[in-house]
Specification:
Cytochrome-c oxidase, globular, 8 strands, Thioredoxin-like_sf, 201 residues, signal, eight-stranded mixed sheet
């Protein structure tokens, strides 16, 4: 019954929100106004992230270019804040996965996170080649905000770093709505600079 109620809420919430705000291309502006934990981004040049997944396969962010990626880090010394954020992200995944977005979104946790409660069809856990704490710090350095709260990094299709949700107090529905807008955005065509860089990577 809980899943049905959640699915029903999500089925109507985006329609209501879209009718009220028509965010579309303005999603960053709208989300900045409504969600204090959100930080807009538009970055293509990112720290390198090479991962070994739980099943032994290798992955880097470039492998996920055709998906919306939701990236979080769980360093060993993070403790309760990371635990709370992971619990919130599992709720976000549950909300996403009762919609067609399930096929377009992958949740990626780097570090010693528990797999309890995650839906393994679109969730991966990995270990960073340069260590979880170092990888988390590299991505945290992209933010203009101070503090050491854990961050959730959002990537649009094409690999663009689109936004960060900070800490553990952000609204679950706000993150789901932001992911929904990213799924509606067209896949970008690579520019000349991107194609040249890809040749040398």
């Amino acid at each position: 019954m809980k899943r049905f109620a959640l699915a029903l809420m999500l089925a109507f919430t985006p329609v209501t929100e879209a009718a009220a705000h028509h965010p579309g291309a303005r999603i960053d502006e709208v989300m900045t106004e409504r969600e204090p934990a959100f930080e807009a981004f538009d970055q293509h040049r990112l720290p390198r992230l090479d991962l070994t997944l739980a099943d032994g396969t290798y992955l880097n962010l470039g492998d996920l270019d055709e998906k919306i990626a939701v990236l979080s880090f769980v360093p060993a010394d993070c403790g309760a804040p990371c635990g709370a954020q992971q619990a919130l992200l599992r709720e976000v995944q549950e909300s996403v996965n009762v919609t067609p977005m399930r096929e377009m979104v992958v949740f990626l946790t780097v570090g010693a996170a528990s797999d309890t409660g995650w839906d393994g069809t679109n969730w991966e856990r990995g270990v960073a080649a340069n260590g979880t704490a170092s990888a988390a710090a590299s991505f945290a350095s992209l933010s203009e905000r101070e503090g050491d709260a854990p961050m959730v990094h959002l990537f649009a299709r094409g690999g663009r770093h689109a936004g960060i949700f900070h800490g553990t107090e952000f609204g679950r529905v706000n993150l789901v709505l932001y992911i929904n807008e990213l799924t509606n955005a067209p896949m970008p065509e690579p520019g000349l600079v991107d194609r040249i860089i890809d040749i040398f990577n």
